[in-house]
Amino acid sequence: MSLKIKTLRLVGGDFSKIIGEVLRSLDIKIINDDSAEFDSVEIFNEIIGKRVITRIKVSVYGGEAVLRKSSLVRSDERFGAEVNRLVKKNLYLLFTEDFGLDYVPYGILHGVRPTKIIQRWLREKFGVTSQGVIDRDKISRRICSDYLTERDKAELLTEVSIRQLSILNSSDDKTIGIYVGIPFCKTRCLYCSFPAHVLPAEKKIADFMSVLTRDIESAKNSIERYGFKVQTIYIGGGTPTALPENFFAEMIETVHKNFCGAGVEEFTVEAGRPDTITAQKISVMKNFGVTRVSVNPQTMQQRTLDFIGRKHSVEDFIRAFNELRTASDWKINTDLILGLPGERLSDFKDSLEKVLALAPDDITLHALAIKRGSKLQVRLADELNRIEDFDLPSNSEVRDMETFAEKVLRGKNYLPYYLYRQGYSTGQIENVGWCKRGAEGIYNVQMMGERQTILGIGGAASTKIPDFANKKIQTAFNAKDLTTYLRDIEKYIARRENILSEIYKGGD
After folding, report:
1. Number of domains making up the chain
2. Rounded distance, CA 54 to CA 52, Å?
3. Residue 36: what pLDDT?
4. What distance in Å separates the CA atoms of residue 294 and residue 1, rounded to the nearest whole number?
5. For range 278-290, the mean pLDDT
6. Could you say which of 41, 67, 213, 306 is the most buried, measured as most Cβ atoms within 10 Å of its Cβ?
7. How far apart are CA 375 and CA 86, in angstroms?
């Protein structure tokens, strides 16, 4: 059930962002036409001592009604964060209990990295007995209570958060990850919002390689200056394997020469497009010590592949997967997307069963997200298109896909180890990495955990450095636009170095 209102007014405090999150999750729309159920809704928030009070004033057909909800802040949490949480909680309860709107799986838990909340609790010893035993039920119950999540989501979050601890704890303040961004793809998929460019002419690629090498060598100098230990290397994009053979080999060799040492535990290459994987590229990856490869069908339904703009066939994926499996003992990840246009539960079942027949080490399930900047979002913004024209499955059917996948994957001894959420996801569910025991992607866990420095190199790459002293994360972003990255590389290198120097005190 959705709700339409003509006008919305907010009173008391600057809570527009978090109120917007609640409205979007409950499918409440501001539409100034006669289809609206209410003429106006006013939301009032007031803080009295340690109590957050939320009132909703509704006007319809000349009449008015006022609804009220009050909650008390937790003394063991930061006050400002608690106020924000309780504004969301009060509002969510008013709309679901008094307006009859449908509950959503994650309640008011809207962040990209929900596992960080549980991991912080564990560091603070909440849910940990004096003997060091973790009480999963206590943690799950608090997630349900504080964030109004469904019990199965709370249990999944708790399971993943605990499973990640050994990886997160394997790092210290001098252990880092490396991300190398190759911002090229052969084509752009319907749903994609990543800052990738269709593969340019050879001259432009050569220019990129020259600048990338400068970026890599600068990062190597920083690693030596600060005494960093590289734990993981991740080459992503885009699609790195979209590079022509000679440039791909040059890129892999340069990364290996500058970053690969005895302490590197994982070296990943995102080879997402099966049609970009060749015998020569497989040989290059093997020769330079790659330990993990992603090859992604997204679906095993050919009609869907054609519709969303993937230029590979189902047979191309099977061929690429088998060639990778034969070539080396590296871990192979595959991605599937739940909620693609035209697909129903039966299609997803078929895709999952066909992928599982290949026995990948890791399967990541993504919920389709209609992201800003994607072709899908742009086309939906055109009044000539309607969402019905894309024949997207309903939220409930996408959740059925997820329920089916979890049952099957657990039955095949896959475990959830990696989880994040995106806005505008179909079904309002999560993205989850499922793997065989021992096949966890270390970089994925460390990157999402945000407790390890990640040096970002290349087009659209992000550097993230935890500043534990000031309880924040310092960031530096390389340009998404290729021309700007090539032109201003020295500026991006300087920004990265300035943050490192600030946090690590110049390497002293």
Report:
1. 3
2. 7
3. 87
4. 38
5. 98
6. 41
7. 36
**pTM for this entry:** 0.94
Token pair 């119950």 in the structure block, residue: 141
Which candidate, 176, 177, 182, places its Cα nearest to that of 281?
A: 182
> Which residue in 347, 360, 358, 342 sits closest to 404, CA to CA?
347
Contact 230, 176 (CB under 8 A): yes
Same-domain pairing of 49 and 152: no
pLDDT at 384 over 70: no
* One domain for residues 35 and 116: no
Q: Residue 99: which domain range?
A: 1-103
Q: Residue 468 corresponds to which tokens in the numbers above?
A: 């534990």
CA dihedral 453, 232, 444, 488 (to 10 degrees): 60
Q: Which two tokens stand for residue 94?
A: 């008013």
Whether the Cβ atoms of residue 450 and residue 464 lie closer than 8 Å to each other: yes
Cβ–Cβ < 8 Å for 455, 174: no
Distance, in Å, from the CA atom of 277 to the CA atom of 246, rounded to the nearest integer, reads 13
Where does a domain end: 143, 163, 183?
163
* Cα–Cα distance for residue pair 342/423, rounded to 1 Å: 21
Nearest to 438 by CA among 419, 409, 415: 415
Q: 28 by DSSP, 3-state: which?
A: strand
Contact 282, 323 (CB under 8 A): yes
CB contact at 8 A, 111 and 151: no
Indicate the average pLDDT of the chain: 93
Exposure class string for 79-89: b at 16+ Cβ within 10 A, else e: eeebbbbbbbb
Residue 14 CA from chain centroid, whole number: 27
